[in-house]
Predict the structure.
Amino acid sequence: MAQTKSGKAAGKGKASNLIKGGTGDWEVVVGMEVHAQVNSRAKLFSGASTAFGAAPNSHVSLVDAAMPGMLPVINEECVYQAIRTGLGLNAKINLKSVFDRKNYFYPDLPQGYQISQYKHPIVGEGQVEIDVDGETVTVGIERLHLEQDAGKLIHDQDPERSYVDLNRAGVALMEIVSKPDIRSARQAQAYVAKLRTILRYLGTCDGDMEKGNLRADVNVSVRRPGEPLGTRCEIKNVNSIRFIGQAVEAEARRQIEILEDGGAIEQETRLFDAEKGVTRAMRSKEEAHDYRYFPDPDLLPLELEPDLVERLKAGLPELPDAKRQRFMKEYGLSAYDAGVLVAERESADYFEAVAKGRDGKLAANWVINELFGRLNREGRLIGDSPVAAAQLGAIVGLIGDGTISGKIAKDVFEIVWTEGGDPAEIVEKRGLKQVTDTGAIEAAVEAILASNPDKVAQAKSKPAMLGWFVGQVMKATGGKANPAAVNEILRRKIGI
Ligand code: MN
């Protein structure tokens, strides 16, 4: 997104989110509706399995297939998951909520309606904090409601026919609706990433966007700064964080172009074409009354005991914001490093296992730079890291107590990565211990000084030369000399 420089010039100290148009600045306004599949073995109103990848129509109960006379029965676990999620979003839990029928016709919806929640959702207002470019933005949550997913149409197997797979029909979804508090493509991405992190911590949704288990409808409008909200378009089912950013930018540009040409935005539903990087009209926007919502007569209002909510609250894990604060305090980490480590619960746990009882900053450096760097290069996840937390912890411990230098530690890391083994044993067996014996270091220093008299003369007036000598001594000792001792001896012998 083109960012104006005027924000900085005006001394705000942060990049402006405004978009430069042909006739002045524009502000993009984004609100999101995220559909998150609930982690639950059974569907929202039937006992059929939610397992992914099964043969078509093998996980379909009579309820899911909408056989006449079948009655839905609420799955308690899905309700608990929605409450946990609401609590994790700092939101109000509504002790009474109502399931409604949202009526529409589509071949993947055998009931002819979706059971959803309309006027009385299970979760009310809440908020999520995101960090973008050093700025913390609070995004309001409007509501969270429970609803059924639809089935899937398969068009690409046969040019003459379409098929219906009802395995997904009736699976529980949480629809999480944000307020229009998002002001840039980067904020939109950060919001969905943060939501995904929170859901994964809570264990209420696996956040797998590739499988469609987390998908975002992105509402985009533009306006002149300070003006009322413009007409919005909804971009349906964007299924990756990268595409969310691209879709917001493309849609904002499209709307700005129309408005600057004197046109008007029509409220409509659009699709993002990732290949061409543009949004395309799908259908004109339907209004709530088109769905003829009414309370589902097959289901009683959902009433929750306050005790249940309290019990679920007490069972919540430490969430990413709290963990980040604790990492900063307990291990002395920067906000940035702590943020990187808590983005996934598994990374945070790994880091803590490495850092416990050791130098926290050193541990963070090794986890973020060496381990994550290597995992990224090899396209692996932390769950299948060849170096276990106990092994990396041992390496960090060996650096911390002066047994090995940071440079040797990289070699040990490499050995553990490729061959496995116990770091302390590797160091012992291969003779990698740091040389702290000053006699041995002095001998190496003297040899280097004797063969470089010109450089010694230079170093007397230019102490920055010291680094070169340190490098030579380290090389001569196979990287095993204690750098602090090398430094000290060099300074003394050169006389600086
Ligand atoms: Mn929905």
Residues 100 and 297 are 8 Å apart (CA to CA).
